[in-house]
Design goal:
The complex is a heterodimer. Chain A is mainly α. Helices cover 49% and strands 9% of the residues of chain A. Chain A folds into 2 domains: 124 residues, no CATH class; 64 residues, Structural maintenance of chromosome 1. Chain E (Arc Repressor Mutant, subunit A, Orthogonal Bundle), CATH 1.10.10.580. In chain A, helix 1 packs across helix 4 and helix 2 packs antiparallel against helix 3. The chains are: A mainly alpha, B alpha+beta.
Amino acid sequence: MEQPTEQLTFDFDKVQPHFNTESPDDIKLTLGEFSGPLDLLLFLIKQEQANIFDIPIAKIADEYLKYIRLMKSLDISLAADFIVMAATLIEIKSKMLLPREIFGEAEADAEDPRQELIDRLLEHQKFKNAAEVLYEFSIVEQAVFTRGQIESDENNVETNASVFDLLAVFQKILARHVKEVQMEIAREEISLAEMLKRIRERIYNAGEIDLVEIFQTMRTKQEIVLAFIAVLELVRTESVKLTQSATFGEIILRKI
Amino acid sequence: MDLAIEEKQPRSIGEIVSIVEALIFVADEPITSKLLAEVLDENRETVESAIENLVREYDGRESGLQIREIAGGWQLGTRTEFHDEVRKFLKTRPNARLSLAALETLAVIAYKQPATIPEILEIRGVQSASAIKTLLDKRLIAAKGRKETVGRPMQYGTSKDFLIQFGLKDLSELPSIEDFEDLTSGSV
């Protein structure tokens, strides 16, 4: 049986954001299914009954900012994408204010600052329509029912289980309980200072020591790394000397 | 599979049609004519004409069931006309299983596949990470390798489940994206 999970039905025309500001004290906000700044922009253009190819940018930018401010004042966290779009709108608006005739007649209509935005809006609108069609497809498809799963060995493990299987499982469970022995493992941690002290003592006691020998006595990766750093540190502070008699030969740590 | 077939006798057309019907009935997923031909040990053409016969037969007697081509295979399902009664019995309601954001993202991927996240962002104007996760979880899309470009972004394409859930034979059944342009100028 189908689970009543996400019961989301939406009407592509009706679910649109709008806010009524009839009186200053009574602001009613309806947030629609809102998929992004391009969506909001399309909605505002539609609301203004403007032509998408000739967007009244100043008006739309104002409306857009008003909406953003309202959402902010209501503490609705805005996605960064909305802010980016606000900046884009302001940029276009300011570009539109610059007189274009000064470039001469030929270039007057060469580049509309709105063009890129219009292209994006049209492209977005196309895919919005495509989403709508997909939605319709899925609704139609949901009207067709296919048969439920047929029992087969693959989807019904019960058929394979016998009393002996049950016993085996039970024994496993019992075995698991026996094996539950509590153990406490202390965490071994050694600081660089301790490691320095340890290595220095070893070198001072022995006079000289093979580098390999030092690393061999280390048990964990962390200890090896620390030992390596400690040796470097000892050499740097000049309390020991590193000598190698032959190429690839053994490296000896010697007390100065 | 060792279905002991005794003597290899040529089957009659009617027999083949019946076996095809039985196999389409038991198949969990749409079954391809290739697979049907393999199981029956007949050639593709014979099986395909048997399917045609079957489809015609179901249509001819106005059956409550239909044999349809979907996701490259054949499937037995109830007729859409009777969805009210079937739903009443199953006690289910039609539901939009996807949010608007997920549907939009799916549309972009369906038409632009293989599509990368930056390409989807460009069209939708909004980050689509959670929508993509939903679509992946529902197995409607699948990762289709990385694009050899800056950052090597993952590419996504639609899956077989997408075709099944949206009732498509194959991707070419999607209406052309250019068809939506007329809608565009009309609606705004």
